[in-house]
Design goal:
heterodimer, A: 10-stranded mixed beta sheet, 10 helices, B: Rossmann fold, 6-stranded mixed beta sheet
Chain lengths: ~450, ~250
């Protein structure tokens, strides 16, 4: 079997047969594959990958291009959508766009496909300005995605506009291939005063191996508001490397919620770059793991201008032999006076064999800033458990209730009520309890 | 109803209860008094089934059955209720949802269906009026940001909702101003019947002016050193706990 890196590099030639090599984006791709060829997959000798190994994934013989197109009936996948409400939908099956399951629009806003944006002349100007402008040109997995970037979601919200409903981006894997590598590429642009809500989900419908290496670029112009919800509840043989890059201008608010309950290995690289004043960058996460699941959250907030804020609040509950990683890096440039940067990572270990590695990383070069960080690792409070038990609530349900309470404040900022309820139910399922109410 | 026989219990080899004997019958109110660290709260926790404490000798019987190996929730289902000195805060779970869960778990244990929503609402309305609890209070997160008085009132509200056979009130009077004390005591008195019993654990006799005990017991060093009627509480208030210490030496 060919080494996965070599396989990818050599597949680039075949990939070139299916894209417009004269488009300026192809120069970006060619640069990117060179970088990936040079660097290869990250390994545990690198500080950022100390606790997460991609070795076993690299031993899998992934198909890079799906050989056949599969169809899905809506009724079979309905439960993965936020079907309680009306939404725009951009849906992919094994990496290929499904017009049947999707609901896109060009009515005042563009909620459509990256492949269209990369090929149609009318989008060229925007692509020139934004594509690959905030994503790293250096980080190897991001450049791997850039090299093969072709399909994904393209969302453009012009000045003062707001889509009528939330947008769902869904990726299904059907198991057509014994092992499938997916590399979606999303570009999201919110112009001045624009506002939008996005829910992203990667869902394998099979026990075959799936690995997704996703890159999302988000640009928030002045006063724009972006709410991004990542629902990570995939099956046992699905792994996800999610690379999100956010560029914010003055007075914009970008909130990313990451709910990590499923999958085999999940790595979230969430990067914020503040390019203006009075910016709010908020990242929140609830992670509940069991079995041998592994979730690694790496966040970065780069404060590059004065008077901005960042808020990080990640809660984790780790059972069985699961492993969690939280690494939160905050950089405050010398010019970025009056920065308020808060970071909180609280964890509960409910098994002796579960692990959490948590590390704040603060690089502060300004002198008039407020930065706080705190990590805690604990067990459930015995006194609180006893309290609930004396009210007749069995220990298992009492534990679940306490874990709910622990994770609860992260859900408070979810602005789509139906999504909040769905997450509540996912948490209940994950904890293996049925409570008599939605919290 | 409750029979505590020669109860010895402690934590990690340190004996805290040193041979407690106590019998509580239906319709009775017992007060247990004693100085700090005498074992009052431990006795309450052991009766409620706190696993941290190990029973080294003796037994606790409830309605004729030995409670050994009975979990705290099973004891609750049998009708034992413990009002906490320091109730625990549970953010994100409203008072109403919490009490609904507690009631339905107890019903489930008895093989009953969930209580219908309208019946539950009626009961909540009735009991919250009894304790002069504002409706807004019921939608707040359980004990989160509650004042000391609100926490205690909420404990008694739960007591009223769950209607236990035996209610143990652990230092319910601490942290209450006189108005709150009166409301709480009123609530407890209205819940009193010939079928249930109450154990009041307190350091001071203040609460006993409002809830009149049939019996008063004094615990010292993990043992009941004196039992009597309400008059004993007044005597204690007057002379302090040292008086008993001296007496027991004689």
């Amino acid at each position: 079997m060919m080494d996965l890196k070599d396989k990818l590099v050599s597949s680039f030639l075949a990939f070139e047969n299916n894209v417009d090599v004269d488009h300026p984006v192809h120069d970006i791709r060619s640069e990117a594959i060179k970088n990936f060829e040079l660097k290869g997959f990250p390994n545990r000798k690198q500080e950022a990958w100390k606790y997460t190994s991609l070795n076993s994934l690299q031993k899998i013989d992934f198909s890079i291009f799906p050989k056949q197109i599969n169809a899905l009936e809506y009724k079979d996948v309905k439960r993965y959508f936020l079907h309680e409400i009306d939404t725009y939908k951009i849906v992919f099956i094994d990496g290929v766009y499904s017009s049947f399951l999707s609901e896109t629009t060009h009515d005042g806003v563009d909620i459509c496909l990256m492949s269209a944006a990369l090929s149609k002349p009318m989008y060229k100007q925007i692509i020139d300005v934004y594509f690959n402008k905030v994503a790293s040109k250096d980080e190897s997995l991001t450049t791997l995605n850039t090299a093969f970037s072709k399909e994904g979601a393209y969302i453009y919200i012009p000045k003062n506009k707001m889509p009528k409903k939330p947008i769902e981006i869904l990726h299904f894997a059907t198991g057509n291939e014994a092992a499938l590598l997916l590399q979606p590429r999303n570009l999201i642009i919110a112009e001045e005063n624009a506002e939008l809500q996005i829910i992203e989900r990667h869902q394998s419908l099979t026990s075959n191996e799936v690995m997704t290496n996703c890159v999302t670029e988000i640009f928030a112009a002045k006063n724009a508001i972006v709410d991004y919800y990542k629902v990570q509840n995939d099956v046992k043989n699905a792994s996800l490397i999610d690379n999100t890059y956010i560029s914010q201008k003055s007075n914009s608010v970008v909130k990313v919620h990451t709910f990590s309950f499923g999958g085999k290995l999940t790595r979230n690289n969430l990067n914020y770059y503040q390019n203006g004043e009075y910016i709010d960058s908020t990242m929140k996460g609830v992670t509940i793991l069991g079995e041998k699941q592994h979730v690694d959250h790496h966040t970065l907030v780069h404060h590059r201008e004065p008077n901005c804020e960042s808020h990080q609040d990640y809660k984790g509950i780790y059972g069985e032999k699961s492993i969690g990683v939280f690494n939160g890096k905050i950089i405050v440039d010398k010019i970025a006076q009056k920065t308020n940067a808060f970071q909180q990572n609280n964890n509960i270990l409910i098994s002796d064999k579960a692990t959490i590695n948590t590390k704040p990383q603060l690089e502060i070069f300004a002198d008039d800033v407020k930065c706080s960080h705190g990590c805690t690792i604990g067990q459930l409070d015995e006194e609180a458990l006893f309290y609930l038990q004396t009210r007749g609530i069995p220990k298992k349900e009492a534990s679940a209730l306490l874990m709910y309470a622990f994770a609860n404040n992260v859900l408070e900022s979810v602005r789509i009520p139906e999504l909040k309820m769905r997450i509540n139910r996912l948490i209940a399922n994950k904890l293996g309890v049925q409570l008599g109410f939605d919290l | 109803m409750l029979k505590v026989n020669n109860l010895h219990a402690g934590v990690e080899g340190n004996e805290i209860l040193n041979g407690i004997n106590l019998e509580v019958k239906a319709g009775e109110v017992h007060a247990i008094m004693g100085p700090n660290g005498s074992g009052k709260s431990t006795l309450a926790s052991v009766i409620a089934g706190k696993e941290e404490f190990e029973i080294t000798e003796g037994s606790i019987e409830f309605d004729g059955a030995d409670l050994e190996d009975t979990s705290p929730e099973e004891r609750a289902h049998k009708g034992i209720f413990l009002s906490f000195q320091y109730p625990v805060e549970i953010p994100g779970v409203s008072v109403t949802n919490f009490i609904r869960t507690a009631i339905n778990e107890s019903r489930k244990a008895r093989g009953l269906e969930d209580m219908p929503a309208n019946q539950m609402l009626k009961l909540i309305r009735e009991k919250s009026e009894l304790l002069e609890i504002d409706r807004k209070f019921l939608s707040r997160s359980l004990n989160e940001g509650f004042s000391g008085g609100e926490k205690k009132r909420n404990e008694i509200f739960q007591l009223a909702m769950l209607e236990p056979k035996l209610a143990i009130l652990d230092e319910t009077d601490s942290g209450l101003d006189i108005d709150a004390l009166r409301i709480v005591a009123n609530g407890v008195n209205k819940l009193k019947s010939k079928d249930n019993a109450i154990i009041i654990i307190t350091h001071y006799q203040r609460l006993l002016e409002y809830i009149i005990p049939d019996f008063v017991h004094v615990i010292q060093d993990g043992k009941i050193v004196k039992s009597g009627t309400k008059a004993l509480a007044l005597e204690l208030e007057d002379k302090g706990y040292d008086w008993l210490k001296n007496e027991s030496v004689v």
